[in-house]
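Section 5.1 Outputs to date
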Amino acid sequence: MKKTLGILILTLLSVPAYSAIRNSEIRDLEKEIIKKEWPACLTPKEAAIKW
């Protein structure tokens, strides 16, 4: 019983952390696509760094 509860608690605590990592990876991927496909959408600071 303790082992089952421990696994359940561990699972419930790790899911939000994993979701945050995935969201961060998705945002990074979105930024890369925007830089590649729509360079005009870059902010002036990012455009200056790129050129």
